Amino acid sequence: MTMLNDQNIFGRILVVDDDPEVRGTMESLLRRMLLHCECAATLGEGLRAMREGSFDVVFLDVRLPDGNGLEALAEIKAIPDAPEVIILTGQGDPDGAELAIQGGVWDYLVKPTPIKQTMLSVQRALKYHEEKKAEAPVVALNLDRVIGHAPGMHAVFDLIAQAARSVSSTLITGETGTGKELTARTIHENGPRKDGRFVVVDCASLTETLVESTLFGHRKGAFTGADKDRTGLVRMADGGTLFLDEVGEMPMSLQKSFLRVLQEKRFRPVGDTREEQSDFRLIAATNKDLEAMVREGRFREDLLFRLKTITIELPPLRSRPEDIRPLAMYHVTNLCEEYCLPVKGFGSDFFEVLGAYSWPGNVRELFNVLERAFVASGQEKTLYAMHLPHDIRIKVAKASLGGKGGPCRETPRPGLEATHVPAVDAKSGSPFAGLDALFVGPLPNLRDFKTIMEKRYLEYLMERYDGDLASILKVSGLSRSHYYALLKKTGIASRQG
């Protein structure tokens, strides 16, 4: 490791904890390990120290006087040469551990942690960080078409770079319109197979009768209408990338045979007796919860394992509002070039309306709305809110007149049946009236009970506030990231998407 400040100190550590006793204990331990240690009592102090200094490892408490350590993970990861993060919390929480791991932490330790375990964790984190810095520099990614400045997008870019350096199978997940195909193309164009074809397979459009012919090809006379040989998409992807779009729609009848193709890279065209070979790199994308589909028997578990060597989850646009302006400017500039018009400017009210809308269709919907506004503006040099589609402006105006802050509300999604929401007592108005009904029959264990109640509480929130995110977060006290993590955990997110 690198020696610092001409002393026998290897590595720089920052401890962010509001308990002075914990800070003192950690500082003493780390100095005995010949590590340089600095401390911060608040999240703000810690983030400032990380931005101004260079640390290899950060011990981060969860509950701090001015914020939640887990919510700062994306911001920490966005720091150049970001340190490895070890969560050090006094209250172990399975949900917190899940959020921490999703946020890319090195370890999750619960106080009081044995000294030996703490030392081992920091030693491993330092070794990993040093090896990561010593790696040969990677050719810069071409991200010309991928726009994102939000903290959550930095983790996405890191995973894109990781996928581009390899030829491993990659699964891209995210809501409709988040840019899954663009992400797949970016991986391909920055990878070792960029000179090969990028072949798209739309699994949602595959018909049971022609699916094998489409993928594997056929020989002349193999079936009625096969008047000539046809090369399948799998063969066309030889030496390049095969992109399975909406892989969750792949028929069960095909999943088993396709699993063998992934394993052996061999297939047999319809009507042929000989096998052919295709050396392709696989990237798949879906807006469905494939793990839930596996549990329901609608997707093969062994196929899922083959698909998700690398997994990239694209965040919805509503969780990265700071990206709306750069995305809009990028797309409108492209439209001006396409129509051979001077670059248009923007009125301040234009971005105010865009920022007040929740974008259920994500980036795809945003680009569609921008093109409609562009066409409506004609030869005018500036885009104003009045150029935006009436339906968008009406929804934003109604939300504003209703006194709601933040992104405007959408019509409640179907599927929130009354049976999913706890009964409301007419006298008390409590959503937990009738709770005893849950205890009819065998008692659930505590963890299952907690999951049941979390789901009911979230459904009740969504029903009462019509899905208005700002109101839901204010009433529940949840952070945005924790809220979406709970939606995913309870299965509500997959039902919505």
From TrEMBL:
Q: What Pfam families does the record tag this protein with?
A: AAA_lid_14, Response_reg, Sigma54_activat
Q: Which PROSITE patterns match?
A: RESPONSE_REGULATORY (PS50110), SIGMA54_INTERACT_2 (PS00676), SIGMA54_INTERACT_3 (PS00688), SIGMA54_INTERACT_4 (PS50045)
Does the keyword Phosphoprotein feature in the UniProt annotation? yes
An example GO BP is: regulation of DNA-templated transcription
InterPro entries (UniProt xref): AAA+_ATPase (IPR003593), AAA_lid_NorR (IPR058031), CheY-like_superfamily (IPR011006), Homeodomain-like_sf (IPR009057), P-loop_NTPase (IPR027417), Sig_transdc_resp-reg_receiver (IPR001789), Sigma_54_int (IPR002078), Sigma_54_int_dom_ATP-bd_2 (IPR025943)
This protein's UniProt keywords: ATP-binding, DNA-binding, Nucleotide-binding, Phosphoprotein, Transcription, Transcription regulation
Sites bearing 4-aspartylphosphate, chain numbering: D61
Q: Which GO terms describe its molecular function?
A: ATP binding; DNA binding
Task: Identify the residues that the record assigns to the Sigma-54 factor interaction domain, covering every copy.
Answer: 146-375
Query: Response regulatory domain location, by residue?
Result: 12-126
| Organism domain of life | Bacteria
KW ATP-binding (keyword) present: yes
Q: Where is the signal peptide?
A: none
Gene3D superfamilies hit by this protein: 1.10.8.60, 3.40.50.2300, Homeodomain-like, P-loop containing nucleotide triphosphate hydrolases
Q: What is this protein called?
A: Two-component system NtrC family response regulator
What is the species of this protein? Desulfobaculum xiamenense
